[in-house]
Amino acid sequence: MKSIRICVIGLGYVGLPLARLFSTKYQTIGFDMNPRRVDALMDGHDETLEVNDNLLRDAICNHGFKCTTNLEEIKCCNFYIVAVPTPVDNNNRPDLQPLWSASEVVGKVISKGDVVVYESTVYPGVTEEECLPIVERVSGLKFNEDFFAGYSPERINPGDKEHTVEKIKKVTSGSTPAIADFVDRVYNSVLVNGTHKASSIKVAEASKIIENSQRDVNIAFMNELAKIFNAMGIDTNDVIEAASSKWNFIKLKPGLVGGHCISVDPYYLIQKAQVYGVLPRVMSSARRLNDGMGDYVANQVIKLMNKKGVLVRDSKVLLLGITFKENCPDVRNTKIVDIYSTLKEYTSDIVVYDPWANKEVVKKEYGIDIINEGLSDLQEQFDAVVLGVAHNEFSNMNIRNMLRIKNGVVYDVKGILDRNVIDGRL
Fold first, then answer.
1. Secondary structure (3-state) at 290
2. Which residues, 6+ apart, have CB-to-CB distance to 188 below 8 Å?
3. Nearest-10 crossing angle of helices 265-275, 201-232
4. For a surface tag, which of 106, 268, 401, 415 has the fewest beta carbons within 10 Å of its beta carbon?
5. Dihedral angle, C-alpha 328, 332, 338, 344, nearest 10 °
6. DSSP summary character for residue 130
7. Mean pLDDT, 10 residues at a time, over the chain (426 residues)?
8. 340-344 contacts at long range (C-beta below 8 A, 24 or more positions apart)
9. pLDDT tens-digit profile of 51-67?
10. What is the DSSP string of 239-267?
């Protein structure tokens, strides 16, 4: 075990925390194609905020952890971990280009006897049918003879400081029984709560894809209930509180489903299922319903403004939060953008405030200018305020002071505000 030299390819929300953890026990190098990202990490700062700067600096200074864009520097490794994103294209079809590119990188550096483990979320079969043939072709080595593989799906929850990577129970697998045992031992050596060794790589791949698909379906059910109860004039949160008094009721809440996991991963299984002639109706319906919730929220706000006699056209609106979840800078696939887009059809005077989001990233990804400081200067300026993200900074804010008219609208997407100060909530 001491001779293991680890390289983690892809230093985003998943790869960096994992690499930092492995560096406490093994010689570890992080590889990323983005020089700006690598330079920032080597300066001791993680802009995703997943790894505390003190922990990162400790890994660099005391454990020899380093990050690089140079292929030559990772050829010394013998245990490669691929942790790159797996997005979908504009038609919600799986985009495997990042995985293909990462597999080419592995093929250029892997040597006889080495192991490559994939962590990226995929449909069953991608590792063995898409990735490993690329490694074989580029390296000239034979899979399961010259090099070996495993799959251990990532379980990073961005912004979650309780379920950090060392505390997560990881699923592991390998391309042979011996490699499965080996991969399992490597991961077990740094994890507090151990591992679950799956019977095959495909089983491990499938386990990850259904984790997020299950959450997507469950949230879709609650969103559908919210639509029903809102139409009936019943508070959905009150209904949930009453129902959860039963011992076996699963307490969930409606909400916007964004981010890189729940809003993306189900499409991988949906697309693959259709190849086998299976139409996943429940999953497909859940995706459509959840994808439409941003537009639904915006129309609820418009409806409330009309009821209260607030002219929607050219009104001034404040959106509180644009990240996909609370206390996290991640703006990937955020559904707040859908709220913004629908409201933009009626007014161009929309201010987006988020103390966690990076202005440049939001502008590049969505073409939206935001502010992340100086909120006190915005008192008594708006006709409507929409709280879209439950950042800690918003929980005790006197939002009605942001309104310039007495009949202005406050809408709470996350259900964290006192009901006496809001006009509607999801």
1. helix
2. 194, 195
3. 110
4. 401
5. 80
6. I
7. 88 96 96 97 94 95 96 97 93 93 98 97 96 98 98 89 91 98 97 96 96 95 96 94 96 92 91 94 96 97 96 96 94 96 96 95 96 85 96 90 94 92 92
8. 340/368, 341/294, 341/295, 341/298, 342/294, 342/295, 342/298, 342/299, 343/298, 343/301, 343/302, 343/317
9. 999 999 999 999 999 99
10. HHHHHTTSTT----------TTTTTTHHH
Going by C-alpha positions, the residue among 205, 196, 147, 189 that lies closest to residue 172 is 196
pTM: 0.91
Phi–psi pair at 151, nearest 5 degrees: -140, 130
CA dist., res. 160 & res. 78, Å (int)? 31
The DSSP bridge pattern shows strands 384-387 and 424-425 to be unpaired
Q: What 3-state DSSP class applies to 70?
A: coil
To which residue do tokens 């006009």 refer? 423
- Neighbouring-strand partners of residue 287: none
pLDDT digits (tens, 9 = 90+) for 249-296: 999 999 999 988 888 999 999 999 999 999 999 999 999 999 999 999
Dump the DSSP string for 72-107: GGGTT-SEEEE-----B-TTS-B--HHHHHHHHHHH
What type of residue sits at position 148?
Answer: F
The kind and range of the H/E element at 148 are strand 148-151
Interatomic CA distance for residues 250 and 229, integer angstroms: 18
Enter the tokens of residue 225: 């209930």
Q: Which residue numbers are catalytic?
A: 261
How many Å apart are CA 26 and CA 29, to the nearest integer? 10
- pLDDT digit string, tens, across residues 344-354: 999 999 999 99
Residue 216 CB burial class (10 angstroms; 0-12, 13-18, ≥19): buried
